[in-house]
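Inverse folding, one chain.
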């Protein structure tokens, strides 16, 4: 039966990663258990995969061990309330947005948000007012400034909340404390997608944690950098500019009523582990990252991303610009059993955590040198900017009449669905945006080299009828 064959194939693929000596410079942060709290490995057996039995508490209404674990996490990250998430950061973003906003409300946010935010806007009937982030010469979008937020609020007094991405996929951190001050001066909550920032609270040389910077609602993918199991995350809330009870009510409706206790236990263990040794662990990771950044920046034709003007940078997130096709270089590294977090047309992203050691120098650096020698030089550096929206009703475009057309026939048409390179998961085009000639040309160029989400079959896209 095909299901059994698929299960065997999957088990064999997973076993391959267990048996081979791969260098993983990507999520999850625990790196196959190298950076994980003591006791976590002991949980990973079927005897611990349980339901809400006596003494195990209930995630829908935690008053026992889960409630206490969430209180400890809130205290550690500086929140008033923390909720454990077993449906990833996506469910936290949905709860945060739907708990603060009603259908038809307006949200101020940057254009380079993750597709999970777009989904929350579509399903929640929330109307966006977009801020254009700063773009660099590498075709990477960074953050927005407090001045941009202030100007937008002056022009659009109907805005009911502000959302920021902090840090970005590339580790760039906008001046969040300044943005928080502006939002609060207008009496608005500041909501933050901090999926890649769970570790920022544990070292003074890292950018300030989003909660400490004044955010009112913060979603963190704890598994990405803080060492918990994949799909586990946290939602941190501060009372004052939002109602935590309203957000938690929504969360109770949309999060699984059959939560994995393996995920929940990993969040609890990580909380205690980082409280005790978090600074020590991240001090080691930062020390290694600074040495790696210097060595990689000296490779022929390469450069390492530094903090854009007015922004901060997580030094453990290394973006390397390369003189060859970044997608091809990633494939070359994978064949060398080295796995970057992300590749782009002319760059790679590596994530360093306390799990890493000098193998980065003995494996990654020589492999990069070999790849740079054998791959042809990059012949193009032309990236399309996001197209202008023609409607703020994303749901109307997504759920309304639409037809499926070949990609080239989509030029000049309004997209009905997002088209996204994954990772990083930032849509190239959104529902309600016009597909431009430049966008289609770019998609044609990279679609065979990167994962594309949003296709209706190979090379087919959905457009508004």
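Residues assigned per position:
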């Amino acid at each position: 039966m095909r299901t059994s064959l698929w299960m065997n194939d999957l088990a064999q693929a997973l076993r391959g990663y267990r048996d081979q000596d791969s260098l993983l410079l990507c999520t999850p942060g625990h790196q196959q258990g190298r950076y994980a709290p003591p006791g976590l490995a002991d949980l990973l057996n079927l005897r611990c995969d349980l339901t809400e039995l006596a003494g195990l508490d209930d995630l829908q209404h935690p008053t026992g061990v889960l409630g206490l674990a969430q209180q400890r996490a809130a205290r550690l990250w500086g929140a008033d309330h923390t909720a454990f998430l077993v449906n990833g950061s996506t469910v936290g973003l949905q709860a945060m947005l739907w708990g603060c906003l009603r259908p038809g409300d307006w949200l101020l946010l940057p254009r380079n948000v993750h597709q999970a935010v777009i989904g929350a806007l579509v399903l929640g009937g929330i109307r966006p007012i977009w801020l254009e982030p700063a773009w660099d010469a590498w075709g990477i979008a960074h953050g927005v400034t407090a001045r941009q937020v202030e100007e937008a609020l002056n022009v659009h007094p109907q805005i009911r909340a502000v959302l920021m991405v902090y840090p970005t996929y590339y580790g760039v951190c906008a001046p969040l404390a300044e943005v928080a001050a502006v939002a609060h001066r207008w009496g608005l909550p500041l909501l933050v997608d901090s999926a890649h920032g769970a570790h920022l609270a544990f070292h003074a040389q890292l950018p300030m944690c989003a909660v400490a910077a004044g955010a009112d609602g913060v979603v963190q993918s704890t598994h990405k950098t803080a060492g918990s199991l994949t799909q586990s995350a946290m939602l941190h809330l501060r009372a004052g500019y939002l109602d935590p009870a309203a957000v938690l009510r929504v969360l109770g409706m949309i999060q699984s009523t059959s939560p994995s206790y393996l995920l929940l236990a990993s969040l609890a263990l990580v909380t205690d582990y980082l409280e005790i040794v978090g600074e020590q662990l991240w001090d080691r990771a930062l020390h290694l990252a600074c040495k790696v950044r210097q060595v990689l920046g000296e490779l022929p034709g390469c450069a390492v991303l530094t903090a854009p003007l007015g922004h901060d940078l997580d030094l453990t997130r290394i973006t390397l610009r390369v003189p060859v096709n970044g997608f091809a270089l990633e494939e070359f590294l994978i064949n060398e059993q080295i796995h970057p977090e992300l590749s782009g047309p002319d760059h790679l992203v590596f994530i360093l955590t306390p799990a890493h050691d000098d193998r980065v120098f003995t494996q990654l650096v020589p492999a990069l040198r070999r790849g740079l020698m054998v791959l042809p030089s990059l012949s193009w550096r032309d990236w399309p900017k996001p197209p202008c929206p023609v409607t703020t009703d994303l749901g109307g475009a997504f759920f309304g009449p639409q037809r499926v057309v070949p990609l080239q026939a989509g030029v000049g048409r309004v997209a009905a669905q997002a088209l996204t390179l994954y990772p990083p998961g930032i849509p190239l085009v959104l529902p309600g945006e016009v597909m431009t000639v430049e966008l289609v040309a770019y998609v044609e160029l990279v679609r065979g080299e990167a994962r594309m989400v949003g296709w209706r079959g190979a090379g087919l896209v959905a457009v508004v009828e």
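The chain has a mean pLDDT of 91. Residues 1 and 27 are 33 Å apart (CA to CA).
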